[in-house]
């Protein structure tokens, strides 16, 4: 079967889930998309077989922060459903797709953070930006108006904060974040844990936005919808909730570089 040279498979293998999109190289369109938990990764082969029914993609661009075993498993599945596809395992470098990596050691920056920053820059060019990706961990990173990734912060994600507190504090219950609270001053222990964790997440994002002088804050990740209502941002600062900011970055690379990738 001939490969579709205009379609790229984008993969974001995070700490909890593996997300993917079949992207059109010439536009912002995603032709198909899906996800699977690591424990259910075999489902990806089924999803891909359906998505590639007409023709498999010629290229794959994958960001993986889940380790070597996950990479090996993905390589095996890709060999079965997209044989012959050229696969690039995205890694942070000094400069790519119009973004300069200002990390002291550019290669040390997590590839998901670099991709998210590229995606944020593509969505809001020539503006000082904060991009907060709220998943298993929460990362809050700054990009300046010239297109330089300055650096950022990493903190436990909302769920990790709550579960750590419950696990390590006697008699506190395990809770699942998800309830929007009417007040940060909770009148029961479960909500007090959630209020504290939400406030810590929101506070980090708010502080980063003020310190950076950002004019736009891009929020992404599974916990973003819980954190967004807690944010109190400076006047004039635009808050944008964007799904899958890492894959938006991978798609921006594809569109910027085409066959160079």
Automatic annotation (TrEMBL):
Needed co-factor(s): NH4(+); K(+)
Protein name as annotated: Type III pantothenate kinase
Oligomer and partners: Homodimer.
The protein's Enzyme Commission number: 2.7.1.33
Active site per UniProt: 112
HAMAP family: Pantothen_kinase_3
Positions that bind substrate: 103, 110-113, 189
Pathway(s) this gene product operates in, as recorded in its UniProt entry: Cofactor biosynthesis; coenzyme A biosynthesis; CoA from (R)-pantothenate: step 1/5
Originating species: [Empedobacter] haloabium
Binding site for ATP: 12-19, 136
Recorded catalytic activity of this chain's protein: (R)-pantothenate + ATP = (R)-4'-phosphopantothenate + ADP + H(+)
Keyword terms: ATP-binding, Coenzyme A biosynthesis, Cytoplasm, Kinase, Nucleotide-binding, Potassium, Transferase
Cofactor binding note of this UniProt entry: A monovalent cation. Ammonium or potassium.
Function, as annotated: Catalyzes the phosphorylation of pantothenate (Pan), the first step in CoA biosynthesis.
InterPro entries: ATPase_NBD, Type_III_PanK
UniProt GO molecular function: pantothenate kinase activity
Family: Belongs to the type III pantothenate kinase family.
Claim: ATP-binding is one of the keywords in the record: yes
Gene: coaX
Lineage summary: Bacteria, Pseudomonadati, Pseudomonadota, Betaproteobacteria, Burkholderiales
SUPFAM superfamilies according to UniProt: Actin-like ATPase domain (SSF53067)
Residues of the signal peptide: none
Major subcellular location class: cytoplasm
Keyword Transferase found: yes
Location in the cell: Cytoplasm
């Amino acid at each position: 079967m001939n490969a579709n040279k205009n379609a790229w498979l984008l993969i974001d293998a995070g700490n909890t889930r593996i997300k993917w999109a079949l992207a059109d190289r010439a536009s912002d369109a995603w032709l198909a998309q899906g996800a699977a938990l690591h424990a259910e990764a075999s489902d990806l082969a089924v999803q891909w077989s359906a998505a590639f029914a007409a023709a498999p993609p010629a290229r794959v661009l994958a960001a993986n922060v889940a380790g070597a075993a996950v990479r090996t498993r993905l390589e095996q599945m890709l060999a079965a459903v997209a044989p012959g596809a050229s696969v690039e395992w995205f890694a942070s470098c000094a400069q790519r797709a119009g973004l300069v990596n200002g990390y002291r050691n550019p290669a040390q920056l997590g590839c998901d953070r670099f991709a998210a920053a590229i995606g944020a820059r593509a969505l809001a060019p020539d503006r000082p930006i904060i991009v907060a990706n709220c998943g298993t961990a929460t990362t809050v990173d700054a990009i300046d108006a010239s297109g330089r990734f300055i650096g950022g912060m990493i903190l436990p994600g909302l769920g990790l904060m709550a579960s750590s507190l419950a696990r390590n504090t006697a008699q506190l219950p395990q809770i699942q974040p998800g309830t929007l609270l009417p007040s940060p001053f909770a009148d029961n222990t479960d909500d007090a844990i959630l209020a504290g964790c939400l406030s810590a997440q929101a506070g980090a994002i708010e502080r980063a936005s003020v310190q950076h002088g950002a004019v736009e804050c891009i929020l992404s990740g599974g916990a973003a919808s819980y954190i967004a209502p807690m944010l109190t941002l400076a006047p004039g600062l635009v808050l944008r909730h964007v799904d899958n900011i890492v894959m938006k970055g991978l798609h921006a690379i594809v569109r910027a570089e085409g066959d160079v990738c």
